[in-house]
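Pilot study result, target chain (494 residues):
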Amino acid sequence: MQTFNDFSKSAESHKTLPLIESFYTDVLTPVHMFNALKDDALYILESQDPASEWSNYSFIGLDPFIDISESETREEFLMTDLDTAETFTFSSLKEALDYAENYVGAYTESIDLPFKGGAVGYVNYEAVQDLAGIKPRDDSQPGNYRFVFTRTLIAYNHRKQQTSIISFENPERFESVKDTYNTLKTRIHSLKKQLQSNIQLEDLMLSRKKAENSKLTFTSNYKEADFKRDVDVIKNHISRGEIEQTVLSQRFDTVTQCSGFELYRILRNVNPSPYMFYLNFSDAELIGSSPERQLQVKDNKLEIHPIAGTRRRGQTPKEDEAIAHELLNDKKEVAEHKMLVELALDEFRKVSVPDSVEVSRYMTIGRFAEVMHIISIVNGTLREDVSPIEAFFNSFPAGTLTGAPKTRAMEIIRELEPDNRGLYGGCILYYGFDGNMDSCITIRTMILEGSTVSVQAGAGVVADSTPENEYQETVNKASALFNAINLAEEVFHP
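Predicted structure:
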């Protein structure tokens, strides 16, 4: 833990100061920690991606103190100080986030982590209505944006088995800087005791990753005949030259006895991915295992990962290589992927320093637990006059979830799909106190509201698509989550 002298050095230059204590553990895991603190914990963010620095860390946020949301009229953004209940109004999310960053004024230079604390939340797909001028549905509700700043962040370094507790406070809330330091010291000590005393958690000890019985019934919001009809409608739009591709999706609902955290524990085991998350908001629990980055901004460097083309993993290394070879030679999949790379390049050029945009990885195979994808990486350098959140909305929503050209594809989605998408095709993201951000597309994601859990999946319709194949693709994609939910029922509620 820092000494008081080290802690107080930044008191004159910053409003909010962090106290940090790091310690090594041999039994505690992030799942143990979240379970021990789940009455106070708001989120857990994890990764299992060897190519990412995130894969070395899990982050748990607790004790929210600032909330940013959309107003009831959907015309303004509200930033609420949860300590004082004071609310501030803004015309854009950027203004709200910028104000919150200055309002908190956090010192972060002493924090050596990829995420140093800040806002964590979501942007729904329907935010496109604000960005692209697409008319919202008559039944559209507020709630397309939600971000929360937590006062305490727990970071677990998997490689070192080291836990760091970072807790922030504003000395103006206390009698002195020394009093602030002592309060944070007591808070961290209390959290450590809570972690030690509440460590009891039975290991899953999964003997299988497939549910033995698919006892749950999933109901779609899209009749199969209507979905197939609409695939043909999209193909007609393509034949007229309006679009190259549109992603058509359907949502599946079922009733579960499981909690959101139980679903997350199973999902992270059966479908590990670069972006794994559990967010426990009062009105809904968000559980996901996304393979796809929307946008990362790190020290003004931009990165996006276009993904298109999916195949199952092989049973043997030889079969795996054969499937990968077939995927890279599938003309439909390759054409779709190239289209998305060009879309990413065009979007980056609008916000990047001239000549800084490049493809650093082109059409390689990315392998995950159950599937493989064609993946490219596009990079750029953010212009000084563009903020990270502006760069984010320049590329939102992802072309992999809309089609191209984006605006016309989104209009067609709005006309054909029976309901708002909500979180599907939106993003989970963090926006750090240091100005860095990272985000993932909300696919392979569950939403738990009460006892109803929803999943959604889509298929990219192109000129040579067949209605039967596209419908089945959505079912196949959703099946991984169907399995996780059924398995969670068997494990936790036999």
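One observation from the pilot: The chain has two domains: 4-197, 219-492. A full batch analysis is planned for the follow-on phase.
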